[in-house]
Amino acid sequence: MSTRVARLYGKRNLKVETQDVRPVGAGEVLLRMAAGGICGSDLHYYQDGGFGPIQVREPIISGHEASGHVEALGVGVTGLDLGALVAVNPSQPCGKCQYCNQGLPIHCLDMRFMGSAMRLPHEQGMFRDWLVVKAEQCFVFGQETSPGEAACAEPLAVCLHAVAQAGRLSGRRVLVTGAGPIGLLTVAAARHAGAAEIVVTDIADAALARAPAMGASKTINVLCDPEALAPYQADKGSFDVAFDCSAAGPALRAGFAAIKPRGTIVQVGVTGDMTIPLNALVGKEIIWRGSQRFDQEFEQAVQLISSRKIDVRPIISHQFPLKDAVAAFEQAGDRSVACKVQITFGAQTDT
After folding, report:
1. Is the whole model's pTM more than 0.85, yes or no?
2. What does CATH list as the number for 159-290?
């Protein structure tokens, strides 16, 4: 049995190729893949060959946010029905290192994360028609959920973890800088957590246009109206919590100015080194916390999407069949129109 895969060889060198599908082992399942979203890290691999110290050093199959249907069960697998729509959790902590033993699997010293170039050999990803994975990585959705929605479980889990880092949000005023897919899903997660007001900033109108549907109270294009945040920065700031999903220096500095004394900034976006307003951090006793990936939040994301307590459909802007994977990545790089670009799998999607 063979499968098509989207394999990246380096900067803007993505090819759809064919390879064999390995046999299904004990405790594993065979999935007929349905949809997969292009993440910011996937896009960095494609556009730049990597980001920071993480570089594509050998061919890698892209994709770490995807859904598929259960096609076959390995020996010993229970709790999964043939045909069920599942999302695949790409995170595979070792369960044995000091951080796993401390209940911190996010910081596993031997983490395997599908579609990541951090390790060598690289961990291969999910952009393919057929995939064999451990059954424990599969989480089932309700019958009303579409494959595209299911493929949003991983990015929503990232945002649920970020919101958890902020502490109580009920009744609080929240700023979200950056209205890409992660920023918009953070808005939805913050609204679900009870935030009273959510202001979203970005420099692209197309991105901001989706924010109200995800729960934003107000949107600000800081490129067109750079002074619009000034009222929120008066009297040492207005927001209880800020989520920086942009990793842009000006946005982060604006967040420091707009946060209240002893407020919390959760850093979700990543970039290289940058200068920070250290005087504001110290003078206002701001809590600045990092947030990466997720753990228990993946299952929570599946439940919220399946029930549509969080509706992810507004962020899905484009879908391309696997044969057009290069076009999908090029589209994902155009923020003037694109938000979450997905690739669909299976021969029926390429007709």
Report:
1. yes
2. 3.40.50.720
| Cis peptide, bond prior to residue 314, ω within 30 of zero | no
Dihedral sign from CA coordinates of 67, 68, 70, 73: negative
Q: List, in order, residues 6 or more apart from 306 with CB less than 8 Å away.
A: 141, 142, 144, 145
| For the chain, domain boundaries | 2-152+312-350, 159-290
CATH superfamily of 2-152+312-350: Medium-chain alcohol dehydrogenases, catalytic domain (3.90.180.10)
Query: 327: which residues sit within 8 A by CB, 6+ positions away?
Result: 320
Each of the 351 residues of the chain gets a pLDDT tens digit; together they read 899 999 999 999 999 999 999 999 999 999 999 999 999 999 999 999 988 788 999 999 999 999 999 999 999 999 999 999 999 999 999 999 999 999 999 999 999 999 999 988 999 999 999 999 999 999 999 989 999 999 999 999 999 999 999 999 999 999 999 999 999 999 999 999 999 999 999 999 999 999 999 999 999 999 999 999 999 999 999 999 999 999 888 999 999 999 999 999 999 988 777 888 998 999 999 999 999 999 899 999 999 999 999 999 999 999 999 999 999 999 999 988 999 999 999 854 454
